[in-house]
Amino acid sequence: MSESVPDDSDRISERVRAIEPQGIREMFELATEQDGDLVHLEFGEPDFDTPDHIVDAAHAAASEGMTNYTSNAGVLELRRAIADHLARDGGPRPDPESEVVVTNGGVEAIHLAIHSVADPGDEVVVPTPTWPNPISQARLASAVPVEVPMPAEDGFVPDADRIIDAIGPNTAAVLLTSPSNPTGRVVPPAVVERVAETAADYDAFVIADEVYRSLTYEETPPRAAAVTDREEWVLTVGSVSKAYAMTGWRVGWLAGPPDVLAQVTKIHESTTSCVNTPAQYAAIAALTGPQDPHEEMLDAFSARRAFVFDRLGSLPVVSATRPEGAFYAFVDVSDLPGSSADIAKRLLTEYGVVTAPGSAFGAGGEGFLRLSFANSMDRLELGLDRLESMVRTESV
Ligand SMILES: Cc1ncc(COP(=O)(O)O)c(C=O)c1O
Questions:
Q1: CB atoms within 10 A of CB 296
Q2: Ligand 1 first shell, C-beta below 6 A
């Protein structure tokens, strides 16, 4: 560091200082320092390429001069495609003109939602274990994340009573992620209904993060906005990232009531202006084009899920509940020595498998490891062989 730069953390805003480094990133960095044939089971993105027709659509858009800024809310044709997609998925079709904003992935949609509805000091209720970003996003908005651990003994099925107990006059929003990263649990409709009802009674929104929704293996429950009659309090988050292997394209959406969405557009105006224009055309192709590549990917994830859970079921000491969606196994390793971070580090340094420790996913995640099955069958088999060696060695 240059000597003229004072080493004084007061130079940095309190909001930003309140954000903690993510446990997943720490493992990623440890892995980059390590040589050898590592099996990567930490990835949070599909291991497939974006389907050709989607790439071609972006290429065509760029070649045809679709390279200007778009409206802050996104290309209207894409907003229509998103509204149609949501309607096909069951439940209300938002008005593309006033109830849909195209965002830089689902992550920005959650950020915009929290910023639009939470004042400094307001609470954002986050059932855990959770993908940690919404916790940081609440802090960035000077709001207070309230972590509510879901019951591990029930495989982390969201528990309405626990969530409702955390809602009160200071609550601005409640996050319901379905399916969940890292647990793979879907939120039962009855839970959505009761939580949305209570939240609305306190003038608080449900932020329904549905980015993994199209990767559901059993019966897909209705969308959050479809199960509550307090729909004016539901903000729906979605994206093309996971469903179409498009994580790097950064296209998602926020759908919800027009008064909130008008504020969201204002934030866009002063932050990102809009989403990358050719990427928006790629997303139109994803949502309106052939769905076979998506179906094939879903079949592959489904086969891997079966394989991974057969293998996990045959291991001593560790256990996991089969996820209903997403592509993670959240494995109970609490009978192995040490914290989940210690176990993840040992698994990496001594056995060559990269995973994410449960402690990275908020309260209640300790004692678990997240294994992603976004990897080929061969690599999954090798990773599980290595996990088995560790478990058998350490449990004697
Ligand atoms: C639960 C959850 N929501 C939202 C996102 C955001 O994804 P994207 O911004 O790529 O749509 C992720 C990414 O991993 C996630 O796990």
A1: 12
A2: 44, 105-107, 131, 177, 181, 209, 211, 239, 241, 247, 252
